[in-house]
Amino acid sequence: MVAIVTMCFIFAMISFVTNMAAPFGVIWGNKFEWSRMAGNLMNFAAYLFMGIPAGKMLLKIGYKNTTLAALATGFVGIVIQWLSSKIGGGSAIYVYLLGAFVCGFCVCMLNTVVNPMLNILGGGGNKGNQYIQIGGTLNSLTGTLTPLLVGALIGTVTANTSMSDVAPLLFIAMGVFAAAFIIISLLKIPEPAKERNATVYEHSAWNFRHFVLGAIAIFFYVGIEIGIPSQVNFYLADASSKGAGILVNGAAIGGAIAAVYWLLMMVGRLCSTFISGKVSTRTQMITVSSVAILLVLIAILTPKTVTVNMPGYSAADGFAMFKVPLSCLLLVLCGLCTSLMWGAIFNLAVEGLGKYTEAASGIFMTLVVGGGVMPFIQNLIAKGAGYMNSYWLVIAMLCYLLYYALIGCKNVNKDIPVD
After folding, report:
1. Distances from the Cα of 169 to the Cαs of 9, 32, 234, in angstroms?
2. CATH code 3.30.470.20 for 2-193+205-408
3. What percent of the chain has pLDDT over 70?
């Protein structure tokens, strides 16, 4: 139970760090247009470099020491981002991006630890997925609060808005990392890899087709998860004819409505914790992929003149209902669908891997770089073809996830010994 609670707390921290990038991008994007998704890209680019080494760390130094190394790295990354608020001129953006990159190393290591550990503690299968969804619920809770807090601190973005306006959040992050380091250093965490006393095997995770296809699926999934709310946020913050046309406190409203997406992810994951023991992971994945495709398609085709009231926050009105395009509501509802996908894909991808699970987790996390690459590409499409048209890319990625759930997740390599 101590290990489960610890892993769930780590899951929450992952989201806290990751979801600062998009609202921070609103600040930097006002000064450097190219930088709007750059922080997010740097955060996820770190996965490309750290994923496989993190998996090797699990085998060599264990889950606990890998976690402590990750927390120390995260503290340093937050400090560097804070330093960007103290540096004047154009060099500040590069200091911030360095901090985002360092934080990416942190969340990559934490993800490499928490996913296989929860899956192992649940014994794999539907129960393993259930434990991952429990952790994912807390992940979504912090994902809900982070853009809401940043949006409230920013208010209306002006030429004078800077990282110093969100310094309180950065100080909170430093305190959380420091406290987590002390607490986890005192806890005992299971070390399944050390108990096996083996690090060299005759095969590798790459020999399992369903794992390789699952790694590709996670590359696309994280792009979907980050891309949907990020573009909604940018769309609402853009007061021009290309955007939603909200003239006052657009950034705050956009941040609050993006927070609803993460809130729905929390609701979806919470519901999944109750049904995962009864409904197969594959069935859940097929259902949510299909529904998400439908929601995004309708959002693209719905004119922005069709509006609906959604909850938001502004400095003048506090929490209130704001009129936004119906497309935003449809896209936010996708949070119910994406909520189940991370745990489901990981669970399906590592099913039957046995002793190859730790190395597989590292490879898996390397492909999380898609959370930086695909939203960056989507943002380029949005600049040229418009915000809503950029979601055709999301539909294409969702179609791959549906394929994986239907066909790609089947283990066709059961002849490889995994004990």
Report:
1. 18, 22, 21
2. no
3. 81
